[in-house]
Amino acid sequence: MPTRDEVIEVMRQVEDPELGMDIVDLGLLYDVEVEGSKVKVTYSLTSMGCPAGPLIAGDIERAAREVEGVEDVDMELTFDPPWTPDKMSDDAKFILGFG
Fold first, then answer.
1. In CATH, what is the architecture of 4-81?
2. Which residue ranges make up each domain of the chain?
3. Is 31 helix (H, G, I), strand (E, B) or coil?
């Protein structure tokens, strides 16, 4: 059975191509719920008009399915609360010059 931590770790493979950094460090991964073989990933984008949105969504689904035991992936894109650079990890802020 997959674990929340396993899914979060595999989300580090999903990059925002515009920023060249993974969605975990960018703070775009809002939540992961695991119920049996079903995983729900709640995420955001840096902006509503982010052109990389479809690519990121596809990568989230692909990565989640790599976790052993995951059979169904549900994704929820949300802008509540809106993403801000404050959500980034300290390392991401430093690398992107927000530190």
1. 2-Layer Sandwich (3.30)
2. 4-81
3. strand
Burial 23-58 (b: 16+ CB within 10 A, else e): bbbbbbbbebebeeeebbbebbbbeeebeebeebbe
Quote the radius of gyration of the chain (alpha carbons, Å): 13
The pTM of this model reads 0.94
Tell me the C-alpha distance between 46 and 41, whole Å: 16
Residue 99 binned pLDDT confidence (cut-offs 50, 70, 90):
low
Contact at 8 Å (CB) between 28 and 43? yes
C-alpha dist (Å) from residue 87 to 28, 37, 76, 92: 8, 29, 18, 10
- Rounded CA-CA distance 96/39 in Å is 30
Q: What is the pLDDT of residues 58-69, one digit of tens each?
A: 999 999 999 999
**3-state DSSP: the chain helix, strand, coil percent, rounded to 5?**
35, 25, 40
